[in-house]
Specification:
Strand content of chain A: under 5%
Distance between the termini of chain B: 31 Å
Oligomer: heterodimer
Radius of gyration of chain B: 20 Å
Structural class of chain A: mainly alpha
Shape of chain B: flat
Helix content of chain B: over 70%
Distance between the termini of chain A: 11 Å
Structural class of chain B: mainly alpha
Number of strands of chain B: 0
Shape of chain A: globular
Number of helices of chain A: 5
Chain lengths: ~70, ~160
Amino acid sequence: MNKIKLARMELKLTQAELANKINVTRQTIGLIEKGQYNPSLQLCIAIAKALGKTLDELFWEGEEND
Amino acid sequence: MIKSFLHIFLPEDEYKREKMIYFIAESAVIVMIISLCVGLSEYLFIDSNYNPVIVLFLIPFFMIIYTLFRYIFSGMEYTEVVTKAHYKQRRKEKFVQSIVSGGLFFILYNILKGLPDHSSEWYNRIGMSILFTVFLFLIYYISLKRSYKKNKELAD
């Protein structure tokens, strides 16, 4: 499962709630979670802050995180 | 943030904004290629004497229509419609909105052109208003349907 989706579910947030927090649409969150859209660094930081994670934890795909 | 006057026309959402820039850029590239081909053929082979005023109007018209259609078919207009009930409610709203717009179109057309003398002209105007209403609803419907389908696929 996508790391953003996992982190969001840990916080019991819906896609719409997360979208509202970072001022994007629910569709954008869905696309990011499905890997169909690569967000800008600015949006990555906003997502990481909203989910209380670091950029590494959410977006890094190195072996240590797999 | 990139400084550009285009920001006025673009949505706030990052994904939508990026897509819109692509659609506008695509329309500009198509216009450029067509203009180049037509210009070259005109210069080298034919001398068809295009009316420059019509051509000047056609270019922005094409760019607006192309961008609009790409936007409608992309399914990103109604990002909040996820459930069947919400979809049906929005469809109903759009249906009413189309009818009201068709009525306004009919009234405005008659105000601008004056009331017709013949019954055939009345039929023409009523027909045009009905066509306008149907076309508007079709645009709303396609956009809504595609948005709903896309949202359903992306929902958790």
